[in-house]
Structures are given as structure tokens and as C-alpha cells.
Amino acid sequence: MEQAAGTTDLQAMIERLAAAANLLEHAVEQMGLKQVAQLSAEAEASLERIVATAEAKWEAELERKLEFVEAQLETLRVSRTAGAGESGRRTLPATMATLLTKQGVALESVEAGGLDAAAGGALDKALASLSIEQRIAVKAQLLRSGAIG
Q1: What is the pTM of this model?
Q2: What is the DSSP letter of 130?
Q3: Is 92 left (phi over 0), alpha (psi -120 to 50) or beta?
Q4: Which residue has the higher pLDDT, 111 or 40?
């Protein structure tokens, strides 16, 4: 009987050890899941910081470029405004000068500082024989050169 009692005690101990082993396995599994979740959260937070840093650098670069372009535009506006008030020499391309001369427009009136209302009417009359596209091209060129306003 003692042997039977010893065997029963041994089986009970084996069952308790198996139950303890199962509990240990479950605990290790839970710890592993917690570590994976923690590592995943840390990696995600790190990635978000990296992305935020990269976006901040990109935005700063875009802002710097925008400021540079705005400064260039302002410089162009100032130079254009200053250039419009100057009484410096204004020249027309040779083809425009030839075309205007053929149409009877005096180049002296154009080069002397722009066309007044009467000269503008004369210009319209002189350009009447040209096609619409040619008139537009001539007037655009005169505008670019500052001959008319």
C-alpha cells in the first residue's frame, strides 16, 4: 500500500508540476506579447518623431524658397516701377521700327517718351491695314519697350 500511496503522491506531484509548467508557459507568452506591444509602440513613436523632423525640415526649406522667390518678385516690382518712371532710352526692335515707318508712324514721337492721345490715334490709323494679330504684336512690343502706356 505504501507503494500505491507513493505512486499516487508521485502522480499528484507530476500533475502539479505539469500545471505549474502550463502556468509558466502562459506567463512567458503574456510577457512576450507585452514586450512585443511595448517595442511596437516605441518603434511607432520613434518613427513618428523621425517623420515629424523630416516634415519640419521640408517645410522650413519650402518656406525659405518661398521667401527667396517673394524677395525676387518684390525686387522685380520695384525695378519695373522705377523703370517705368525713368526717361532713359527706349528702343524698339528693328523689325518693329521698320514696320511702323512703313505705316507712316514717326519714330521720333515714339522714342521721345511715348505716344500721347493724338499720336495713339495716329498709331491706330497707321496699323489699320495690318491684321489683328499683327496689330496686337506691334502694340505689345510698344508696351514692352515702354513707348506706349
Answers
A1: 0.34
A2: S
A3: beta
A4: 40
Q: For 23-69, what is the HEC assignment?
A: HHHHHHHHHHHHHHHHHHHHHHHHHHHHHHHHHHHHHHHHHHHHHHH
Sorted by sequence, the CB contacts under 8 Å of residue 143 that are 6+ apart come out as 149
Residues 95-108 pLDDT 10s = 777 777 777 766 66
The amino acid at 130:
L
| CA 123/CA 100 separation, integer angstroms | 8
What is the C-alpha separation between 7 and 31, in angstroms, rounded? 36
Query: C-alpha angle 135/141/144, rounded to 5°?
Result: 140
**Is the separation of the CB atoms in 111 and 147 below 8 Å?**
yes
* Pairwise CA distance, residues 148 & 20, whole Å: 100
How many residues are present in the chain?
149
Residues 6+ apart with CB under 8 A from 129: 103
